[in-house]
Design goal:
- Helix 10 links the parallel strand 3 and strand 4.
- The protein has 12 helices and 5 strands.
- The chain is of the alpha/beta class.
- The model has no long low-confidence stretch (mean pLDDT about 90).
- The longest helix is centred in the N-terminal third of the chain and has 28 residues.
- It binds adenosine-5'-diphosphate and magnesium ion.
């Protein structure tokens, strides 16, 4: 057996033991290249370390994307900013980098009628933030309220809310669909109060604050919730016509033009 064979016989086992799968997979290729190009040993070692670290970052982002429950296909690239003039692309791109607002636990509120693109914009921003290394959870507000309500019944509400701290950002989609008779929504207040000035929330709603009395059990709680949410918040009012309806009308007009041209 050659010296190299002897030296490397145990390598797969050692790399596995050290949990270095990228190096395990790639070291032979890199070693061949290093030998051929006469790399100094230090360069070889540093190339392998870089590969492993890059692969770890990639896998972490993949895990965070899975845990985020973000709806697929809603990206900033596929968002037509021209359709929502009041939503500045530059500002969205700045928010997508995350650092300033997520680090101080600031909030983002998106209001607009059904179909105006709130969920798409929220999910797209969430996805960009995950890709930038943050942890995000996207949830319909009604689902999260129900979940927290069950935790409250099991006397575990505080722990459940604390567990959500691992997410830099919670996206609560369609807050105004929550009604106080549907579930006891004081859990939502507890969540808002607990994250205040620490962890960010992004909220979408058809109805701006005027209608939120329907959401919380007492008017004082509504006021207190809104007060905390807006204290450090960016608010976008997306008062545009439904994107679905607009594209449907666009398709219809196109089809009619086509029919007119061909008949
Ligand atoms: P909302 O949450 O405000 O009711 P959605 O975000 O669900 O609206 O938008 C409805 C549909 O239209 C979705 O399929 C979404 O991807 C699409 N859409 C809305 N606004 C835009 C936009 N500005 N650019 C591209 N697609 C959009
Ligand atoms: Mg929506």
């Amino acid at each position: 057996m050659s010296t190299i064979a002897v030296d490397t016989a145990r390598l797969p086992l050692l790399l596995h033991e050290l949990r270095l799968p990228a190096i395990g997979r790639l070291w032979q290729d890199i070693a061949a290249r290093a030998d051929k190009e006469g790399w100094p040993a230090a360069r070889f070692l540093s190339a392998l370390a870089e590969l492993e670290v890059a692969e770890r970052a990639r896998r972490r982002i993949e895990r965070h994307l899975v845990e985020s429950r973000l709806p697929p296909g809603k990206t900033l690239d596929s968002f037509d900013f021209a359709a929502v003039p009041m939503l500045s692309k530059a500002q969205m791109m700045a928010l997508a980098s995350g650092d300033v607002w997520l680090e101080k636990g600031a909030n983002l509120l998106l209001f607009g009628p059904p179909g105006s693109g709130k969920s798409h914009a929220a999910a797209a921003l969430g996805r960009a933030l995950v890709e930038n290394g943050y942890r995000v959870l996207f949830s319909r507000t009604t689902d999260l309220v129900q979940r927290l309500q069950l935790e409250r019944q099991a006397l575990r509400l505080e722990a459940a809310i604390a567990k959500l701290d691992r997410f830099d950002l919670l996206i609560l989609d369609d807050l105004s669909y929550v009604t106080k008779d549907q579930a006891e929504t004081s859990v939502l207040f507890e969540l808002i109060a607990s994250r205040y000035e620490r962890r960010s929330l992004m909220i979408t709603a058809n109805q701006p604050f005027g209608e939120w009395d329907k959401v919380f059990p007492q008017p004082a709680m509504t006021v207190a919730a809104i007060d905390r949410l807006v204290h450090h918040a960016t608010i976008f009012e997306m008062n545009v016509e439904s994107y679905r309806r607009r594209t449907a009308i666009g398709r219809k007009a196109k089809a009619e033009r086509h029919t007119a041209e061909t008949t």
